[in-house]
Design a protein that fits this description.
By secondary structure, the chain is of the alpha+beta class. It has eleven helices and 30 strands.
């Protein structure tokens, strides 16, 4: 289980894309993209723009007046693979190191931008636990991939007898569990085998006296629709009113994800009892009647916003291109025609990241984090997390907190890392957040509760906030420093502690302030993408250290320290020699500290 989700990390810097790079680019840009007679490709300093499209155009057309030739012989797919290689390389060392982070630290306090917490074990056992949910009495159900449904009461597990037989090869097994609290029905997804292959199935039943009873089939396909292989079953469940949503992976047959007649590579929608809703997207359009959306590779997370009922999903990309999507009726989410990832062997899946009529992901990760389950949090134990979407990272061993504005992800904070593969995340009715962790160590495999840790009241009282006025003061100080020292033009981007861009100044005079033009220019620059999220992650592992080396190539990238032990946000300066960038950023930080009356 889960071996393929590690490929994206293990394969960084290998395969067809690296072979292509070494044959055509390494003699100038260095064996590992670090630079040689030509510039580095991992420092974020781009002469012709740092977006994917701009890098592709530079490879394809060259840079007139420089030693960079036009690589006309490369296909669009080869160029796309090179762009992904460039994107994944800066994170290579960190992600490969995370593959070894498999031991839970129950006593460790995790300090985040909004709350501090520690992990408290609920149940630990050998094997691969896949999902968890809660019964109305507060006890927990958790699935084990080998086919066991566990009922956990006060930390003591009891195996439920009589659950369906499951196909456990590869990525198969007993998968998700979802409780409908109002009726007591328990829904399960699992891989089932036939003489023709295997397919994802959905059933519901009830638990009485330790047994699975009253089973009803919700989604079970005839053997003629089963497929060979043991990959990409999905699958997660979400309940919205009278409707059940669930995902089915493409089963390794990627082109079928675009065929509305096929069940695989889709999000499906049924009534809770398995009936087909009359308003399903493809019911009267010649497609499979249960299909709600198509173009999905391998859904691993599914949840509905508790207030709006909008459904969100996470899915594995190939090597890069992991996604979080806002799922809407009849929409096409692109796979495999449009993707931000490439094949594990370093060859391109597609030359396109987007196409007309296909939805863009709300958030994507290149390199991959191998997302797991997702959950909206609305509890009271962590009040400043209300409305946020939490996403597990399996290969990356991370838990992400996403801040949403409508259908957009505007910030991504890693609130926990290095504790093992985050297979699932569940918001409990008790107001706590729970994670299902998979690890090689038996004692560290299980379900854990995130428990809030009281912070120092004086620290909370004195912790300042990075206001717009302070952000503008920082920028003005940087600009004045460059003018006073006759320094070269630089770009300055200032972010809050949620990685949201607050203020941007381009000293070539094309944009400044917070208007749409300024924001668009800053957000289009790869060197200013999520710097304070990176700052927060780096500072967590290096407390008390101010400089962030190689911060996405922002040589002047600095956390804004104010004495609280955590940064207020980040400032990125780029465009001049590194020592000038860094000095300019430091001048801005000193101006804020002076404004706040700090030493």
């Amino acid at each position: 289980m889960g071996a393929s989700s590690a490929y994206a990390q293990f394969n960084i810097g290998t395969g067809g894309a690296m072979t292509l790079y070494r044959e055509n680019c390494a003699s100038c840009h260095g064996a590992n993209l670090e630079g040689g007679s030509a510039g580095s490709l991992v420092d974020g300093d781009w002469k012709n723009g740092g977006t994917d499209d701009a890098i592709a155009a530079t490879i394809r057309e060259g840079l007139p007046g420089t030693a960079m030739p036009a690589w006309k012989a490369l296909t669009p797919e080869q160029i796309r693979a090179l762009v992904i290689l460039i994107r994944e390389q800066p994170e290579s060392s960190r992600l490969k190191a995370q593959e070894k982070a498999n031991t839970v630290e129950p006593g460790r306090v995790f300090e985040t931008q909004r709350h501090a917490f520690k992990l408290e074990p609920v149940i630990e056992m050998p094997g691969v636990l896949w999902a968890a949910d809660f019964l109305p009495d507060g006890s927990m159900l958790t699935t084990q991939a080998i086919g066991t449904l566990w009922h956990v009461v006060d930390g003591k597990p009891t195996a439920i007898a009589g659950t369906p037989a499951v196909f456990t090869e590869g990525q198969g097994g007993l998968l998700d569990v979802k409780v409908h609290a109002a009726t007591g029905w328990v829904y399960l997804t699992f891989a089932e085998k036939s003489e023709r292959g295997a397919m994802t199935a959905v059933v519901r039943g009830k638990i009485r006296d330790g047994r699975w009873v009253a089973q009803q089939d919700i989604f079970r396909l005839p053997p003629q629709q089963h497929l060979d292989g043991s990959a990409h079953f999905g699958s997660r469940l979400a309940i919205v009113g009278d409707y059940l949503f669930f995902g089915v992976g493409d089963r390794g047959k990627q082109d079928m994800a675009q065929d509305p007649v096929r069940p695989n590579g889709k999000i499906h929608r049924l009534h809770l009892d398995g009936r087909i809703p009359k308003d399903n997207a493809f019911r009267n359009r010649g497609g499979m009647a249960s299909v709600w959306s198509l173009g999905h590779r391998n859904p691993q997370g599914l949840d509905a916003h508790p207030v709006t009922g909008e459904v969100w999903e996470s899915e594995h990309g190939p090597r890069g291109g992991d996604e979080v999507n806002h799922i809407q009726r009849g929409r096409n989410y692109g796979w495999p025609r449009a993707t931000y990832g490439m094949n594990y062997d370093g060859t391109a899946v597609s030359a396109h990241t987007s196409l007309p009529g296909m939805e863009e992901p709300a958030r994507y990760w290149t390199p991959s984090i191998s997302p797991g389950g997702i959950s909206f949090y609305m509890g009271d134990r962590f009040p400043q997390w209300k409305g946020n979407l939490f996403v597990g990272g399996q290969g990356a061993r991370e838990l992400h907190r996403l801040t949403l504005e409508g259908s957009k992800v505007v910030a991504d904070e890693i609130v926990m890392s290095g504790q093992g593969r985050v297979r699932d995340v569940v918001a409990g009715a008790d107001g706590n957040l729970y994670v299902v962790l998979n690890n090689p160590e038996a004692a560290a495999s299980g379900v854990y509760r995130l428990v809030p840790v009281a912070e120092d009241p004086m620290k909370l009282k004195t912790r300042p906030v990075l206001t717009m006025a302070l952000a503008q003061r920082m920028a003005m100080a940087c600009v004045q420093y460059q003018r006073d020292t006759n320094g070269p033009p630089v770009d300055i981007a200032i972010y809050d502690d949620g990685a949201k861009l607050m203020h941007f100044v381009s000293m070539d005079g094309t944009s400044s302030g917070t208007g749409p033009t300024a924001m668009a220019k800053a957000e289009s620059s790869a060197r200013f993408r999520y710097p304070s999220a990176e700052i927060g992650r780096w500072v967590q592992g290096n407390p008390g250290v101010g400089h962030v080396p190689g911060l996405l190539g922002v040589r002047g990238g600095l956390p804004i320290f104010t004495g609280s032990g955590k940064p207020l946000g980040g400032i990125g300066v780029s465009g001049a020699p590194s020592e000038v960038d860094e000095k300019c950023a430091q001048v801005g930080i000193e101006a804020v500290r002076a404004e706040l009356g700090l030493e």
